[in-house]
UniProtKB/TrEMBL annotation:
Gene3D superfamilies: Hexapeptide repeat proteins. InterPro entries: Hexapeptide_acetyltransf (IPR051159), Trimer_LpxA-like_sf (IPR011004). This is Acyltransferase. Coiled coil: none annotated. It comes from Paraconexibacter algicola.
Amino acid sequence: MVGRLLQLSRAARFRLWAVVTAARLRRLGGRLVLEVDEVPRLLGLPTVEIDGYPGTLTLRIGREVKLGSGLVIDLAHGKDGTIDLGDRVVFQNGVRLQPWGGAIRLGVAAQIRDRCELKSAGELVLGERAICGRNVTLHCEERLELGAKVGLAERVTVIDSDHGFDGSDTFFMDQPVRSTPVLVGANSFVSTNGVVLRGSVIGENSVVAAGAVVNGGTYPPQSILGGIPARVLKSLADGAHAAT
């Protein structure tokens, strides 16, 4: 009986949040499209931050999704955004989602741990059971994909774009943005403080060492990558082992 009452209360709180959010967006010329298979488990209701006049926010939520406290959905001026959460997705606390004209798509049972930031102007995709450790940053301008069962340890950064810098007096933010898709293959692991930059394609079942910087390029499956810039140190296919 108590469980049923809690479930009804949770559903009522979420419906009220949806009504209020939709009304806020409408007042600013935007729109909320909400598709919910099952009301998520809530440690707190999401905060929607709106910059200027938003477009359409499409929010899809699967079954048994958990939303931690302090979740922020940050909407950019004049841009549509999509957040697509598969079944059993888990957000811990303090996560920030920025669908700035793009989509953020999380596969079944993906986990986003405390204080992560996911920003997308393109297609940011996490596969089934992918895990982002605490304070991970994912920035997508074009396409950033983490395959199924990929693990990112604490403070990892993955980004598919950068600003050019030509040595002139032009402010770096005013210089052209360059983007090249990034792919981290299935069942790979990026260790603490690892950085994966635009144009990087890491084969499946690979490991990136702590503090390594993968500065573009294609790397074969079962690689152990390390260094700045990263290179293949060993191949797991040859019987090497790595600790994660």
